[in-house]
Automatic annotation (TrEMBL):
Its cofactor is Zn(2+). This is aspartyl aminopeptidase. Pfam families: Peptidase_M18 (PF02127). CDD domains: M18_DAP. It comes from the Eukaryota. Its EC number is 3.4.11.21. It comes from Viridothelium virens (Speckled blister lichen). PANTHER family: ASPARTYL AMINOPEPTIDASE. Coiled coil: none annotated. InterPro entries: Peptidase_M18, Peptidase_M18_dom2.
Length: 492
């Protein structure tokens, strides 16, 4: 039986990453353990970036770029890139979330992305994200927060009160989670000395001018206290926060033969994880003879269009490439180095794909029906909703042919991982990815791919346990072999 080690490691990664901030933190930890050094966008790179070394930078703490510089790389040489995204469809806590109705405490939430919102009902929910706190010195710092116990729930209406043939609801008025009972909160306040202290601190702060109401007035005070406890500060030190709701049920390996993954946020933490591990494992192939840069970029805000300072449509990736192309070059040499690099480079846009659904087989085109654990899916669309074309398919196929096999693989072949093809039906809509926007902005050769899954955008998704290893080995091969193979496949 094939090993599930990579799938188990991914499950641990996704369980520690309930928000984009946590996903970046988790990826950064993996990369730092592999010897990547942290650099800042604000600093000069001229004396920092050295051939043969590895670097990480973050933007907004929700997007991350990591790259390893081959010792033979020079400005104008190619970059092998994989792009993915750290965000997933979710519910976000509103800036003013404090609500109360018919004896219940409720929390105001806002939909983020195109989620299957009916799947969020009757789940054990909590919150995670980042809090901005004021230190004793008056400075402001960011702290990651994950409240691990269930504190919220969106209850469905009993069938006896509304016998709907299909479940429908109003996202503004009927998607608010309950957080407890008003009576219980009043009893807690009367017995809680910390709450008396918070009220006093809040009263003292009201003596000074505050442009906005303090968090303990805009949100339920006990919610702010829980956030403060996780941030290891007092509630009065919490200035603001960005919190998302998440399902406290952990991701796990499932299926009769441990062949499935049941998890939140497969889209797109699976591709984020696989690209990071693929980059790390490629370092077993020495950078000493490499004339490329091996780079991953994990962006925030893909689910809402990527048009933000930390999204794929931002300056983040172009700025990194431009700065690499100005290292150790004269003004004359630098004149076209950026454009030369882009023309020689290749981008893999890695975002999850749709597995054929056994209960809805007619939703897939008859000859393009990806199956779980049968390999990573190359995504194609004639209207360029995906950026894949024939030169890209040939290149990735060669990378898959050269990929190292698992030691537990039943195949006698020493190398190779499987690939699949996907084209959507003409009578169904097609999603898109960061691939087309980045290929248009950079003019770089691009291909879209991803592992097959079911229930995309649900609170609980399903994927193949062995596809995690398939894509990691594919990405390892891409980084290890792009310098040799990339320039032999041209579309001009």
């Amino acid at each position: 039986m094939a090993s599930t080690k990579y799938a188990e490691d991914f499950v641990n990664f996704v369980n520690s990453s309930p928000s984009p901030f946590h996903a970046v933190h988790s990826a950064k930890n993996l990369l730092e353990k592999a010897g990547f050094e942290h650099i800042e966008e604000q600093q000069s790179w001229s004396s920092v970036i050295k051939p043969g070394r590895k670097y990480i930078l973050t933007r907004n703490a929700s997007s991350i770029v990591a790259f390893a510089v081959g010792k033979k790389w020079r400005p104008g040489s190619p970059i092998g890139m994989i792009g993915a995204h750290t965000d997933s469809c979710c519910l976000r806590v509103k800036p003013i979330s404090k609500k109360q109705s018919d004896g219940f405490l409720q929390v105001g939430v806002e939909t983020y992305g195109g989620g299957l919102w009916h799947t969020w009902f009757d789940r054990d929910l909590s919150i995670a994200g980042r809090a901005i706190i004021r230190t004793k010195t008056g400075a402001f710092q960011q702290r990651l927060v994950q409240i691990k116990k269930p504190i919220l729930r969106i209850p469905t209406l009993a069938v006896h009160l509304d016998r709907q043939e299909s479940f429908s609801f109003n996202k503004e008025s009927q998607l608010f989670p309950i957080a407890g009972l008003a009576a219980a909160e009043l009893n807690r306040r009367s017995e809680d000395r910390d709450y008396e202290k918070l009220e006093k601190e809040q009263s003292d702060s009201n003596q000074n001018y505050e442009p906005l109401r303090v968090p303990s007035e805009r949100h339920h005070p006990y919610l702010v206290e829980l956030i403060a406890k996780e941030a290891e500060v007092s509630a009065s030190e919490v200035v603001d926060f960005e919190m998302v709701l998440y399902d406290t049920q952990k991701a796990c390996i499932g299926g009769l033969n441990d062949e499935l993954i049941f998890s939140a946020r497969l889209d797109n933490l699976e591709m984020s994880y696989c690209s990071a591990i693929g980059l790390i494992e490629s370092l077993g192939t020495s950078l000493g003879n490499d004339s490329t840069v091996r780079l991953i970029a994990l962006f925030d805000h893909e689910e809402i269009g990527s048009t933000s300072a930390q999204g794929a449509a931002s300056t983040l990736l172009p700025a990194v490439i431009k700065r690499l192309c100005t290292l150790e070059t004269s003004a004359e040499e630098n004149a076209s180095a950026y454009e030369e690099t882009l023309s020689k480079s290749f981008l893999v846009s890695a975002d999850m794909a749709h597995s054929v659904h056994p209960n809805y087989p007619g939703k897939h085109e008859s000859d393009h029906r990806p199956e779980m654990n049968k390999g990573t899916v190359l995504k194609i669309n004639a209207n360029v909703r995906y950026a894949t074309n024939s030169p890209g398919i040939v290149l990735i196929q060669e990378m898959a042919r050269r990929a190292k096999k698992s030691s537990t693989s039943p195949s006698k072949a020493e190398t190779g991982v499987p690939l699949q093809l996907f084209v959507g039906r003409n009578d169904t809509s097609c999603g898109s990815t960061i691939g087309p926007m980045l290929s248009a902005a950079l003019g770089v050769r691009t291909l879209d791919l991803g592992n097959p899954q079911l229930s995309m955008h649900s609170i609980r998704e399903t994927g193949g346990a062995h596809d995690v290893e398939h894509s990691i080995r594919l990405f390892d091969s891409f980084f290890s072999n792009f310098g040799e193979v990339g320039q032999s496949i041209q579309g001009d």
